[in-house]
Amino acid sequence: MANDKADVVIVGVGASGGIIAAELAKAGMKVIGLERGPKLSTANFQSLDELRYFQRQETRPNVKKQPVTWRPNANAKATPIAGQNNGNQVGGGTVHYGTLSWRFHEDDFKVRSSTISRYGEKAVPEGSSVIDWPLSYNELEPYYDRAEREVGISGRAGNLKGSKIAGGNVFEAPRQNEYPMPPLELDQAGMLFDEGAKKLGYHPFPSPRAINSKPYGDRPACTYCTFCQAFGCFVGAKGSINLTKVPEAEKSGNFKLVTGAMVSKVNMDSTGKATGVTYFGPDGSENRVDADIVILGGFIYDNIRLMLLSKMEKHPSGLGNASGHLGKHIMAHIGARAFAIFDNQRVNIFMGPSAQRHTVDDFNADNFDHSNLGFIRGAQISVHPADLEAGPIGTAMSLTPPPGTPRWGAAYKEFLAKYYTRFAAINAQTEHLPYAENMIDLDPNYRDMFGLPAPRMTYDWRRPDEQKRIAFLSEKLQEIGHAMGASKVWLGALSPGSPGAHHQGGARMGSDPRDSVVNSYGQVWDIPNLFVVGSATHVTMSGFNPTLTIQALAYRTAEAIATRYRKSPGSLV
Amino acid sequence: MAEHDKARRSFLLKSAASVGAIAGAAGGTSEANARQAPSKAGHIAPALQSTPLNDKHRAFLSDDEASTVAAIAERIMPGQPGSPGATDADVLNYIDLSLAGAYADQQEFYRQGLIGLEAFCNEKFKDSFVYLKPAQQEEALAAMEAGKATGFTWPAGQAFFNTLRTHTMEGMFSDPVYGGNKDFVGWRLVGFPGAQRLFTTADLKNKGEFTRLPIIGIQSVEKTTGRRK
């Protein structure tokens, strides 16, 4: 039993928690960061070992010790999901992520109003719970800029202060500054995709990634080894938060990091104000941190679970749940995939930074006319390995053989032997709208190693709007595959309704306490000293990966706490 | 496979319940033991198509379980002349070591799954999986994959098949330090160069096979510095 006291306690030192820790500690506040996983460094990641990191998911939560369950609807029994997307160490998911670092589009922040103004009220799908974000792209732009610089992003601008630049993403929102580093080099898959997409009149460009294309600060350039997605970088070329922001926090002298600390409860006083947290130490002991400000920086599962577990007299259905919206409106990207094989050349997908290498944004957001399509929104279309990671195990697990070829036996072996070096996958990372029934609550049957109920997702993406969007995009994927000059193109299987990557929502931000859980700073509406950060606060999800938006929002929250809340505790809006 | 090994296996399988107690003494007198086995036409030293019986005990799997797992893996990734398969990669060794370590929580899943497979094969083919012809073994695995194999309670045949496929792929393609992918045969088969620490611009531009460096594993001493200008 240890008791500690600080100005601020942060639960989860990951993509957003690490940024807030550094910013507040540098501003002179005493900060304690509680992280359930270990603190690792580049020295821990010298094994370029696909089994350990990709297949056995060492950098992620152990799904048996910390289960998260899923069921497609409220009548089904939930069972544990096989792999979790988030991280389980200092730096969180930024240790193993594929590093895609996007700014959302301007209309991503106002899906409801922009849809209605362009297509009319009826275009918003029935049953969806789409609202606008409580802030605009322009308000977030300076924080995106800061995140790009401090995390270290490689890319090519496509819209600099309103001037469109060929070769960058011409659909991106205007940016004030160019990326801090030029784009990473293209591999064969990227080159083929670039040529194919151009033939079709689309606008391909190198995906922006938190990977050094040249030495950046004290970190070296990428070696193109391909062991990024699912791995910690063995040279530290990835802008993981444990390498970028956590050292800043530690240097300030105001930050104390506690690892192996699993928070079980937000402590509250009788007036309904947060007083700190209770956590289990690695020895099973129960410990406490008292703090003036509590910041929940875990992944959406843990943030929502903690808010539900911490219910008390003043907040009988969970913290921040006066509106009844806590846990609701969760979203995940739907992945549609096409595979392309090339008889006349090698693609050697095992070279070059993994994940989504080269992108077209022509069919994302509202970048194309949806007038007669029967759906809204779209997807980021990219070229990448079978399952983002490029090793042979990941390929054997995820590269669905073409129709007519079995997935085992002599014919399968022959297929894999011939095409492992001759394939690329093309993915539509598809936006999924919020629906209130897609939600997280506490599982009545499964508990984690600490005896806490597992977070339970009730979720199914197979709704009419989503089905039409996927069907449309699947056609585009095949069209691009053929334009790339592939010998054969076919579609991979879709998930049976289960959530794909990048889980978001559940504690969404809004302008109105009646339809949201937190304000634009992540401040819980009726508990001003409790903040939620990370993708749980996202209102809609875009077809883009969420991390840079998570990080930009974290900078904005940290600034507001350090400059305004600190002087005058209370609502920031 | 030596004839006496086949016979010994036959004996052990067919009479485990009644004379299991003397199995431990079988080593030096297996032929004699085999002659004591309950006779069944065609079963003592038949023209077997099964994979070779293992000549050693395992970290977790029993000898019989090991033979079955090896035979399953070989059907999933069969070896052919000039094209190594699961036996060549020693996928069995990978699975056995994993079950003794990282996958210890799946020990009972395997035990019960193998009992289910034996029950199914005995009902459908009147014989153990290892004694079936390759085409029959494929038929049995296909029935499991399709969820149509009877005889399984827990795990379901389909779930067991999916795990066997996954573990076979892991044994084919994981670093040899884990006991499979012997001499990098899995990586050679598909053209994966292993734990390469650096690719150059010229490598990225090359439309041909990557041959600049040999295949390396995580314990290779041929480390590059991993620095690019």
In short, what is this structure?
The complex is a heterodimer of chains A (573) and B (229). Chain A has 573 residues and is α+β, with helices and mostly antiparallel strands.
Oligomer: heterodimer
CATH architecture of the domain at 3-184 and 207-331 and 434-460 and 504-565 in chain A: 3-Layer(bba) Sandwich
| Strand fraction of chain B | under 5%
Structural class label of chain B: mainly alpha
Name of the CATH superfamily of the domain at 3-184 and 207-331 and 434-460 and 504-565 in chain A: FAD/NAD(P)-binding domain
Radius of gyration of chain A: 23 Å
Kindly name the structural category of chain A. alpha+beta
Fill in the CATH topology of the domain at 3-184 and 207-331 and 434-460 and 504-565 in chain A: FAD/NAD(P)-binding domain
Overall morphology of chain A: globular
Number of helices of chain B: 10
- CATH C-level class of the domain at 3-184 and 207-331 and 434-460 and 504-565 in chain A is Alpha Beta
Poorly predicted runs of chain B? 1-49
Give the overall average pLDDT of chain A: 97
What share of the residues of chain A lie within helices? 10-25%
Write down the overall mean pLDDT of chain B: 82
Strand content of chain A: 15-25%
What is the ordering of alpha helices and beta strands of chain B?
HHHHHHHHHH
Low-confidence stretches of chain A: none
